[in-house]
Amino acid sequence: MGWRCKALSRVGRRTLIKSVALALPTYSISTEDVPVIVCNKMDSTIRRFWWNPKRDKGKYLVWKSWESLCRSKEKGGLGFKESKLFNQALLAKLTWWVASGRDSICIRALRSKYKMGACFIMGNGDSIDMWKDPWVPWLEGFTPIPLHANTPQPPLRVSNLLDSSNRIWKTNVLQELVDSHSLAAFLKIPIPIDAPQDRLIWTLNPSGCFSVKSAISSCLASRINLKTIRAQNSIQFALTLENIWIVRNQVVHNDLKINHLAIVKNLEVRVLEHWHILNPLLVDDTGVVSNLVVHSPSSC
């Protein structure tokens, strides 16, 4: 590492990391599944250069986690990329090309082996397999649930489920094939009158087009949500135990009458206060919890 690199400011180091350290391995990590140990080594080298560029070895002080630095600037990070997540996102791009019908010798070879689960926008239904392809937005995995789960399901084109003259679903046929929940989801799907070609969209991007950024954001969001849920569970469990202990002492030592409703209300307020400190986005300005997933402590 030359003296010029050691003399760089924080802004210069960030620019150098994004334009060199994160850009150079892009081709290699976009074509194969890189081992985790290699990705961790790459991240470790970049972390050291960011926090302590003057030394190649030894300990150094870290003021923020690598995960925090890898968040977007809008979310308080620096826009760095975790090597393994970047690798997975670039491989997902190849998968998207396979599923979306990109025409090349390489993609035709990959398409014969792999299939990606995005979501089809139904047109004429000729290219959608009812059981194998993702095409129902309101169902988990975008695929319907058969009425008889143990019965083998032969390939069936969605176009065969439509009345071509009136452009409506063949409800009597669907009732014999899928469960009630899947049937209700089918009936929500708009049927185009002009019957265009079926189209595959990327559900993680509002535009419907695949982007590496949206794939990385999806990986980070699932990780952050998991950590948030675990923290919520721990807070809820700890405060509940504390309240039980306080009530027990009041009854045993002071022989006080207990107002159960007030205790539960107080517990709820304290839990919300701690959750708000943990993540301010969980509670809006009116004090209402939004996008909150509450699990029992036993689910940790």
From TrEMBL:
Protein name: Reverse transcriptase zinc-binding domain-containing protein
Gene source species: Fagus sylvatica
Lineage summary: Eukaryota, Viridiplantae, Streptophyta, Embryophyta, Tracheophyta
